[in-house]
Write a structure and sequence with these properties.
The complex is a heterotrimer of chains A (294), B (161) and C (761). Chain A has 294 residues and is α+β, with helices and mostly antiparallel strands. Helices cover 35% and strands 25% of the residues of chain A. Chain A has helices spanning 12-21, 35-41, 56-59, 76-80, 83-88, 90-96, 102-105, 110-116, 123-130, 226-232, 239-252, 263-285, and strands at residues 5-8, 26-29, 48-51, 61-64, 67-71, 133-138, 141-146, 151-153, 156-157, 164-169, 177-184, 195-204, 207-216, 223-224. In chain A, strand 4 and strand 5 form a beta hairpin. In chain C, strand 26 (610-621) and strand 27 form a beta hairpin. The N and C termini of chain C lie far apart (60 Å). In chain C, strands 3-7-1-14-11-12-13 form a seven-stranded mixed sheet, with helices on both faces. Chain C has 761 residues and is an alpha+beta fold. The chains are: A alpha+beta (294), B alpha+beta (161), C alpha+beta (761).
Chain lengths: 294, 161, 761
């Protein structure tokens, strides 16, 4: 007989209660594409598995006055089929839709991706660039934090005992705004990002009015690179501005050497991806869609 | 915890089984239900040999817990043929030699069917990216992609040389 | 349907394979799909240390755990003599094999088995492993070949004195042997050279990457009989090894090969089978064992990496006058790398008068290597074919023309002393030269690389039988697991020989008790050698059918011919007899002498070597080092393509394995000697979106030693791709990569390093 228990939570309150009772041995099961792999390798050893997929608000995509909120456990493939979300946040969506294979997409969620707290998580740089807010529920009530402050380090969130991520909220999108996410992987699919870069732009004519840059896989958590954004704001995305923003990204990197890339390579690529992602976002605002760019 | 009793639908038939909380759907399909058509190539969602659909959604069964099957509709390779009649994809794979050792074939067939049900007119690039989660080491993918494109064309009723 | 213009009715057509329905419905049963009632689950305890003395193993707590029915360690396996046996295409030593299967004095790689248990469930088996106490004395380890060859390297085997060195060294080392091949006089040859190219290359260990992990089910009975179901390329091999390792008669062990989910050479050896048998003997129950993907990477045999130095001297017109190659190859923890074939194949594509080739077989603390599709050849080819490209660039010569100028032909004598009979190197080069791909310039942004490759192909032992049922349908029995569609080819050859419909011939793969000995499925030998045995067994049956017809007609058997599936009188003078079909003769079998069977067994040489030439167009993203393959063609002399679809499949599959080898595949060890990437996530094999269609050109140069001209095809395709890709990268960027894999971080680094130099040029 196994020591592991499996429970299906009926609602958020139920899920929070189950997690709080589990004394640190409880794990939320959304898509399971991280949790099951970790259980098999022994990296995570649950006492209690709390399945949240029957909680409507954790699986829903809602829109209020042009501002989207997506349930933390909404499968990426389901989100990918939402035409309006795709139109509003193409960069966020392409990031989320890059998590794993088609099979993994059928289950994986942005919320799970964020909570797994891998520095290389694909969705997170785009969420950061979008100014996404994480909505949390816990034994002491609800709270919200910007996504860039949600994680503390590799594999570590800032969730307190009993807390769960319920949903992700996006700001209302103005006009002439779009975003893009690029990652570098050795193959064309199936790899963990060596570097991931999300750029969100608001343009006024051909000048950048506002920008946010999220950089992943180059530090213990995903970075919000203010300096890169500053270099872009007020510019026409000319070569000089892009170089400056790229340099800011390379400077902000604190990468490691590992089996996926070297410090030198990641630092260089951070800059390369920034330039490319910024131009893709700008082109999207002008109605030009790039296919198969890397 | 005692074993969990699950009632689910597999390939159109109502099925019941008992499972441990941490058994995967793949474990149960193979070891409890005798449905060995879905294969374990890696156990970590990296090879697609265990592909099934849950409520029409393509997933790796090694990444689904068996208790999650409660109340769901699961389709495996064993449900693809209609009695003695092979699905057009199954038939075409054999005709076009889109398999050599055959271990990845169930996964590819389930994944390909899911693709064509969603997108009856995929480009070669779309087919390749959809199937990127299915590893094949024998064929180099060439004849698999060709077979899927041919079936797509046939199912659309398009004529081809 | 048969092609009207061909000389054959069935050979060269593309019918459905006989196991097709089973394979596309999930009905086909692979290794892990077999179960027996009451079976136990077996699991292996593996060394966490790359190099350690095993001081003691205490299994008492594991044995006492409820649900555990047997525990084994090295003491359950008899000691083995220092004896070489052939296995697949490699030579191995039983003393080493028993230690690889279960460690004795030392743990020699991370993942090395040190104990195994059988329990009523997998969960209990895992708990039992955790209860086994192994007292290790951890030793310094060495992973890299060059490091292992240094005089102060940690030594794996105290008895290892390098063979092939005169006088022999006084101290043990990690160099198991040194081999040498010479032809002519390279000193004189290089003195005549007008252009010389010299470079050093390296490759990393790569895995065959079969999607199906190893699996075995063993059931030992009280009377000493043992049954084994194993996913293997050679069930007779499994029988032979298990008999030796466990002191059993081969006739006591019956091995049934399951369907096999890929092998590529990696399943020509044993890992789990001896353990499962022993556990079954001790427990009295069947024992099922499977490897996890992680175990496959940590503990099964990859292909070796190696260091290769190459020097080629030529005249200005391109004629090569001298060639040298020095190969240092990883054997893993025990000797037996394919350094021999690596040396022998290195210049086999070319007719060169003066050659000097040296190879070293070097052990280090990594899993013992196993065969991988043309073992050894891809490693030397990476170096030689890159150097040939450097030569072509230096001479300003087209790479195909350079190879044509030096191509091996009938009568060419190789460095290893064999003189070629009819071969297809020239024909293959010309087919590429005239191909649509080669005649079309690369697209803008793309550059082109060309490379050639060679493999001997083998013949060896096969046994086959043919039986006709009372209704005239035929069963053809052979003993080689079907890894790529060979059943279809055997049925095609039998149908052609017999003159009956393909659908009337059922090929069956028999277990070790039900057919005579067969060498492994490997060496690109099955369609050739087993095909020949099948053809001969059908001919044996036809001989008997003619005897039966003669009996019915009361004529001399010499007066009967067999044509289009029927016995006919040889001429009108024999008599006015209606032809007798196979079905008619079969129906009368009992009356004319009994069952009509044919059989044949052979050990055949004359396999007919294969040559391949590949062309690769690719683009390099200079900022990121990402390579995109735009177009790829694999051309090869394939003898006669019995079932062209499966021949094309061999070319495509081998080419893609080579592309993975070129771009991203490698074993990554950390400083602690542990494998960092034991999974498909970070051992990066090509996925469907990485590739274009792989075009194939089948050049049919029939092998004169086979009735249907069959030449082995399966292994050659993996030999050219690494250099084809590397040569294209060199032409795209001006940078010559010498180390595999050419992954984005490495390529990017090389491009950045070359940038200031190129700016200056």
């Amino acid at each position: 007989m196994s020591e592991i228990q499996y429970r299906v939570a009926k609602n958020v309150k139920d899920a929070v209660a189950l997690m709080a009772k589990s004394k640190g041995k409880g794990y939320v099961l959304a898509g399971g594409t991280d949790l099951l792999v970790q259980m098999k390798s022994g990296a995570r050893e649950p006492g209690l598995i709390v399945d949240v997929k029957k909680i409507p608000e954790m699986m829903a995509i809602t829109e209020k006055n042009g501002a989207f909120t997506i349930g933390a456990a909404t499968p990426a493939a389901v989100l990918g089929e939402h035409k309006k979300f795709r139109k509003t946040w193409p960069g966020v969506l392409e990031a989320i839709n890059l998590i794993g294979s088609t099979q993994v997409q059928g289950r994986a969620s942005a919320g799970g991706n964020l909570c797994n707290a891998s520095p290389a998580a694909d969705s997170v740089p785009a969420l950061v660039a979008a100014g996404c807010i994480a909505n949390i529920a816990g034994p002491n009530g609800k709270r919200s934090v910007p996504v860039e402050k949600f994680n503390a380090g590799p594999g570590k969130t800032t969730l307190k005992p009993g807390e769960i991520l319920v949903s992700l909220s996006f700001p209302k999108r103005g006009k002439d705004a779009s975003d893009a996410y690029l990652r570098l992987i050795p193959r064309t699919e199936m790899d963990i990002a060596v570097v991931g870069c999300g750029v969100s732009l608001t343009m006024k004519g051909d000048t950048v009015k506002d920008a946010r840059v999220g950089l992943g896989a180059v530090a213990p958590t995903v970075l919000l690179v203010d300096k890169a954004a500053e270099a872009l704001i007020g510019s026409k995305l000319d070569e000089e501005a892009l170089e400056a923003a790229a340099a800011a990204c390379s400077e902000a990197c604190k990468p490691i050497d590992d089996k996926r890339g070297t410090i030198k390579y990641r630092t260089k690529i951070a800059g390369v991806l920034l330039k490319r992602a910024a131009l893709i976002a700008r082109d999207r605002i002008n109605g030009i869609e790039h296919r198969g760019t890397r | 915890m005692a074993k969990i009793h699950v009632t689910t639908t597999i390939n159109g038939s109502e099925t019941e089984f008992l499972c441990e909380p941490n058994q995967t759907l793949l474990d149960v399909l193979r070891d409890t239900l005798g449905l060995t058509g879905s294969k374990e190539g890696c156990g970590s969602g990296d090879c697609g040999a265990c592909s099934v659909t849950v409520n029409g959604r393509l997933v790796c069964s090694c990444l689904v817990l068996a208790p999650e099957a409660e109340g769901q509709k699961i389709e495996t390779i064993e449900g693809m043929a209609d009695g003695e009649k092979l699905h057009p994809l199954q038939k075409k794979f054999v005709e076009m030699a889109a398999l050599q050792c055959g271990i990845c074939t169930p996964g590819f067939l389930v994944a390909s069917r899911a693709l064509l049900e969603k997108n009856p007119n995929p480009t070669e690039t779309e087919v390749r990216y959809w199937l990127a989660g299915n590893l094949c080491r024998c064929t180099g993918y060439d004849k698999i992609i060709s077979a899927v494109m041919e079936v797509a064309a046939e199912m659309r009723g398009a004529s081809h040389a | 349907m048969p092609d009207g213009g061909s000389k054959y009715k069935w050979i060269g057509t593309r019918p459905d394979r006989p196991d097709g329905a089973d394979k596309v419905t999930g009905r086909a049963r692979f290794g892990a799909d077999f179960n027996l009632p009451g079976q136990l689950i077996g699991k292996v305890l593996r060394s966490p240390h790359p190099h350690a003395i095993i001081k003691s193993i205490d299994t008492s707590k594991a044995e006492a755990l409820a649900g555990v029915k047997a525990v084994v360690t090295a003491k359950d396996f008899p000691e083995q003599a220092n004896m070489i046996v052939p296995t697949g295409e490699m030579q191995v030593n039983l003393r080493d094999i028993t230690r690889n299967v279960m460690a004795r004095e030392k743990a020699l790689y991370e993942g090395h088995p040190v104990a195994a248990v059988a329990a009523v469930s997998e969960a209990i088996a895992r708990q039992a492993l955790a209860l086994i106490k192994v007292d290790y004395k951890v030793l310094p380890h060495v992973i890299d070949v060059a490091e292992a060859m240094k005089p102060d390297a940690p030594v794996l085997h105290d008895h290892m004195i390098t063979e092939g060195v005169n006088p022999p060294p006084k101290k043990p080392s990690n160099i198991a042997k040194r081999i040498e091949f010479n032809k002519g006089d390279t000193k004189a040859g290089f003195a005549e050279a007008e252009v010389v190219v010299e470079e050093s290359f390296t490759t990393q260990a790569v895995h065959q990457g079969y999607i199906e992990p190893h699996a075995a089910l063993a059931s030992a009975a009280e009377d000493g009989q043992v049954q084994v179901w194993s996913t293997t390329q050679g069930h007779f091999q499994v029988r032979g090894f298990c008999a030796k390792l466990l002191n059993l008669d081969t006739s006591q062990i019956r091995v049934t090969p399951t369907e096999i989910g890929g092998g590529f050479g990696g399943k020509t050896v044993v890992y789990l089978e001896p353990l499962a048998i022993k556990l079954s003997q001790k427990s009295g129950k069947p024992v099922k064992m499977t490897m996890t993907r992680e175990e496959v990477f940590r503990a099964s045999g990859p292909a070796p990496g190696g260091n290769v130095k190459v020097k080629i001297g030529a005249k200005k017109d391109g004629r090569i006058v001298a060639a040298e190659c020095i190969v240092e190859m990883q054997a893993g923890a025990f000797p037996g790398s394919p350094v021999g074939p690596a040396c022998m194949c290195s210049y086999a594509c070319y007719d060169i008068d003066n050659m000097h080739i040296v190879g070293f077989d070097v052990v280090s603390n990594r899993p013992k290597v196993a065969a991988y599709r043309a073992p050894g050849a891809p490693i030397s080819a990476w170096a030689v074919e890159s150097a040939m490209d450097m030569l072509a660039l230096k001479l300003g010569m087209d790479p195909i023309d350079l190879r044509l100028k030096n191509a091996a032909k009938k009568g060419t004598k190789t460095a290893y002393g064999v003189t070629f009979n009819t071969i297809g190197m020239v024909e293959t080069l010309e087919a590429v030269k005239n191909s649509a791909h080669y005649k079309t310039p690369p697209k803008p942004g793309y550059a082109r690389g060309v490379a050639a490759g060679f493999w001997f192909n083998v013949g060896a032992d096969s046994s086959a039988a043919a039986h006709v049922g009372e209704d005239g349908s035929v069963t053809v029995i052979s003993g080689n697991p079907d890894i790529g569609g060979s059943r279809a080819s055997l049925a095609l050859m039998a149908a052609e020989e017999l003159g009956v419909d393909y659908d009337k011939v059922r090929p069956v793969i028999a277990d070790t008790a039900s057919i005579g000995f067969n060498f492994v499925t490997g060496g690109s030998r099955v369609t050739f050698a087993t095909g020949l045995a099948v053809v001969n067994s059908v001919r044996d049956m036809i001989r008997e059918l003619k005897v039966r017809a003669a009996k019915i007609w009361n004529v001399d058997p010499e007066a009967v011919i067999w044509e289009n599936g029927m016995a006919k009188p040889a001429g009108s003078n024999v008599g006015d007899f209606e032809p007798l079909t196979l079905a008619q003769l079969a129906a009368q079998a009992g009356k004319t002498g009994g069952p009509i069977n044919g059989h044949a067994q052979l050990n055949v040489t004359g396999a007919g070597p294969g040559f391949g030439v590949h062309v690769c167009d690719l683009a390099v993203d200079r900022e990121t080092g990402i390579v995109t393959i735009g177009r790829y063609t694999a051309a090869q002399d394939v003898g006669t393509a019995i079932h062209p679809s499966y021949v094309e499949g061999q070319l495509q599959g081998g080419a893609v394995q080579g592309i993975g080898w070129a771009l991203n595949e490698e074993y990554i060890y950390n400083a602690k000697g542990k494998l960092d990437n034991p999974g498909f996530l970070d051992y990066r094999m090509p996925v469907a979106s990485d590739l274009p269609m792989i075009e194939t050109i089948l050049v049919e140069v029939p092998n004169p030693t086979h009735p249907y001209g069959v030449r082995g095809v399966g292994e050659v395709p993996i030999v050219p791709p690494t250099a084809a890709v590397g040569n294209a990268i060199a032409r795209a960027t001006g940078v010559r990569m010498t180390d595999l894999p050419m992954s984005p971080p490495r390529l990017s680094e090389a491009l950045d390093a070359a940038a200031p130099k190129m700016a200056a040029d």
